[in-house]
C-alpha cells in the first residue's frame, strides 16, 4: 500500500510529464491524446496553446485545463460536453502515466460537475479555464476535514512570549535597551 505522499508525488509527476515539448522514453513527443496542441500538423497549422495542471486538496485532486479558443467554438453546440470529455481523457492519461511511473494503479472518481470559465481580452483573443474535481482512491476520508482547527497546545516558551504583549497591541513591556521615543499613535 502506497503512502499519501507517494500517491500525490506519483500523480504530480504524471501530470508534469506532459509539458509542451516533452519527449518520452523513445525520444518521441509525449502525446496525451486529449490536448488540442497535439491535433493537426505543427508546421502548417496555427499553434494552439493549451495545457493542464493538478492541485491537491486533502483526498481530492483538482484537474485544471486552460486553452486558447475562438468565440465560435464557445457558442457551438456541445462545447461543454466536449470540454468535459477532454478533462476525462486527461484524467485517464494521468492514471496510465501514474501506473507507468509507479507500477501501481490509482482510481480517480469524479466529484461534481465540470466548471468552465470563458474569458476574452478582445474580439480575437479568448480562452477557457475548466476544472474538474476527482476523489483519489486509496486516501482516507478524514483528510478532507480542513475546518477542525489545531489541537496542539501552545508551547510554554511561545506562551510567555505572547504574554509579553509586544505584538498583540496591548502595549507590552518594552525592553531595557529600547531607547526609542514612545510612539504617540497616528498624528492628525
Poorly predicted segments: none
Structural class: alpha+beta
Give the terminus-to-terminus CA distance: 65 Å
Mean pLDDT level:
79
- Helical coverage, percent range: 25-40%
Features:
22% strand, 188 residues, four-stranded antiparallel sheet, 26% helix, extended, alpha+beta
Q: What report would you give on this structure?
A:
There is one protein chain. The protein has 188 residues and is an alpha+beta fold. It has one domain (4-142). It is 26% helix and 22% strand. Helix 1 crosses helix 3 (79-102). The mean pLDDT is 79.
Summarize the structure.
It contains four helices and four strands, in the order αββααββα. It is α+β, with helices and mostly antiparallel strands and 188 residues long. Strand 3 and strand 4 form a beta hairpin.
Give the SSE map.
Layout: H1 4-16, E1 50-57, E2 60-68, H2 71-74, H3 79-102, E3 108-120, E4 126-136, H4 156-163
Antiparallel strand pairs: 1-2, 2-4, 3-4
Amino acid at each position: 500500500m502506497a503512502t499519501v505522499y507517494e500517491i500525490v508525488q506519483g500523480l504530480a509527476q504524471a501530470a508534469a510529464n506532459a509539458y509542451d515539448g516533452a519527449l518520452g522514453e523513445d525520444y518521441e513527443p509525449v502525446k496525451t491524446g486529449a490536448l488540442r496542441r497535439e491535433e493537426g500538423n505543427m508546421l502548417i497549422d496555427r499553434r494552439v496553446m493549451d495545457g493542464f495542471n493538478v492541485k491537491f486538496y486533502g483526498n481530492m485532486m483538482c484537474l485544471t485545463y486552460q486553452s486558447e479558443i475562438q468565440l465560435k467554438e464557445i457558442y457551438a453546440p456541445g462545447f461543454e460536453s466536449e470540454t468535459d470529455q477532454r478533462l476525462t481523457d486527461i484524467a485517464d492519461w494521468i492514471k496510465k502515466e501514474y501506473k507507468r511511473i509507479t507500477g501501481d494503479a490509482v482510481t480517480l472518481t469524479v466529484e461534481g460537475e465540470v466548471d468552465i470559465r470563458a474569458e476574452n481580452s478582445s474580439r480575437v483573443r479568448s480562452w477557457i479555464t475548466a476544472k474538474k474535481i476527482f476523489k483519489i482512491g486509496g486516501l482516507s476520508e478524514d483528510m478532507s476535514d480542513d475546518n477542525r482547527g489545531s489541537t496542539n497546545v501552545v508551547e510554554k516558551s511561545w506562551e510567555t512570549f505572547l504574554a509579553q504583549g509586544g505584538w498583540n497591541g496591548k502595549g507590552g513591556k518594552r525592553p531595557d535597551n529600547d531607547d526609542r521615543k514612545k510612539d504617540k499613535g497616528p498624528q492628525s
